[in-house]
Each structure stands twice: as structure tokens, then as C-alpha cells.
Amino acid sequence: MKEACLCLAVAAHVVAFGARPLDQPRDQPHLVFSMVDDMGYNDFYTSTDLADKWPRVSALAESGLAIPTYYTQPMCTPSRASLMTGRWPVRLGLQHQVISGFKDMGLPLSEVTLPDKLRLQGYRNYAVGKWHLGQFSFAHTPTFRGFDEFMGYWTGAIDHYTHEHLRLLDLHEQRAGTDSAPPYHRAIQSQNYSTSIFEAAAKRYISSHAQDYPHRPMFLYLQWSMVHVPLQADDAALAACMAHGAARQRLCAMAATVDVAVGSVYDALVDELGEERLTLMVLAGDNGG
Q1: Which of 8, 69, 117, 206 could tie 64 with a disulfide, CB 3.0–4.6 Å?
Q2: How far apart are CA 258 and CA 204, in angstroms?
Q3: Which residue among the candidates 30, 76, 160, 165 is catalytic per the annotation?
């Protein structure tokens, strides 16, 4: 389906975005791929009624590359499976539907993923937010599919305050096993808003990477839970969207929180990663509309 995409270059070398060869290890860019869940074509910063709720993204678009039309799958799991593998969903057996509930299916374990490939090139990989590529065994979860660290949820949708799916807690922190430490996992209980949790996790990973791995490139796969149902937002955000009417008020409020979070993460990239290497950030939707 048709969707909008925004590509941003972060750091002082903005004029070099996509221009200089990346043939030296130090020239490998930091990569950030971020998606807004279930965002429709008319819900983004060029929206006919919600454009004013994306001030940070609009400002970044002026210094980046905006792609007004690209094509993606119409459902969450097929889109993410294709992104992770570079394959059509039909080749993965994931073309018909999303992975609903805690169903015993997922991205085939035989597939090599994008973070698997990036790891071979020296990248350290982080995932934040939505996964939706399988959770019925640990082998299907992010830190067994190429990511070094993960903080988010495994299923397709959660309550944005309780972080439950079908009344079961679905908020997790994971670290991949190493030669000196086994794989790590813990479930997280929190009443904080999903966007705030994932914003904080992304910034924490950026900061820790800058401190602990200053000479390695990072890949951050940042997947917002907004603006997917359930449509939930705090009172202040809802009050700021009253003019948009009942039909759009909650989605408007959710979009506004994502804009703030995207801007905050962008600022962290600039402040923490420095100018040694280029940082490329892509912000897009997963389904279109």
C-alpha cells in the first residue's frame, strides 16, 4: 500500500548524506530505522488535518529527504518480515495475515535477517518497541534473530498503559548471549505510556553504545506502538486535540506524542554519537492507507 517516508541525515556531515563511499570501517554509518505503527497516508506530517501535530518531523523533513510515495505491505507482520529478510512475504509463509495473539508461527528460523548481516559488518544491533515476528519460542524473539539488545513487546498490539496483550503482560527486556554471559530476559511491569518507555529505551541504547562501543557502528530498529489501537492518550494531549473532533482526537493526540519522541531521539543521536561517522535515520509507516 502507498505510504509516506522520511529519510533524515543526522550529524554535521549532512551534505554527505548518501554521497560519500562507505568503503572504510570508520565510514560505516550509524543506522536508525523507525516506523510508526498503522499510520495512514493522511496521518503524517503532510496530513490535511494533523500536520500541525508533527512540528519536529516537519522541521527535520526540511533538512532531509522526503519520499512522498513508496509501497509497503498492508499488514504489520508481512511488512516487518520483508524488511528483516529482503524477501516477499509469500516466500516466508507470512503473506496471508498477521501473527495474531500468541499463535505458534513466526519468521522462519532458517532465514538470515538484516541484523544478522549487519553484525557481520561490525554493527551492534538494538531493537525497541514492536516485534510481531514470532514469540512462541525464545528462538523467534529479537535477540535470537540478530539483535544484541531488545526492549519492547513481542505481539502485534498492547495496551499502552498496562502493556498487556490478551490480559497477559507483554513488555520485555532482552540481551543476547555472549561467550561470557548467557542470554538475558525479564518481563517489565510499568504503568508508563508506551511512547515514553520506548523513547527512553532508545535514548538509553544510544547513550550506552556511545560510551561502551565508540568505535563500532550501531543499528537501531525503533518501532513505535503508536498509532495502533487501542487509541489511548493522556488528558493533556487529548485536550490539545479537541479541535480535531471526536473521530480524530485520540489519533491526533497519539501522533503528537510520537512527534515529540522522534525529536527527542534525534537530539540524542546528535548529542551522543558525535561527528566521527554519519548517522542515517529513516522514519516511515508500516502499512499505508
Answers
A1: 8
A2: 17
A3: 76
Phi, psi of 193 (to 5 degrees): -65, 140
pLDDT in tens, 51-87: 999 999 999 988 888 887 777 888 999 999 999 999 9
In whole angstroms, what is the distance from residue 157 CA to residue 172 CA?
14
Annotated active-site residue 30? The verdict is no
Q: Residue 7: enclosing H or E segment and its boundaries?
A: strand 2-10
pLDDT digits (tens, 9 = 90+) for 83-97: 999 999 999 999 988
Of 132, 172, 209, 228, catalytic: 132
C-alpha–C-alpha distance, residues 84 and 113, integer Å: 5
The pLDDT value recorded for residue 18 is 28
Please, which residues have CB within 8 angstroms of residue 188's CB and are 6 or more apart in sequence? 151, 163, 171, 172, 173
Say whether 132 is catalytic. Answer: yes
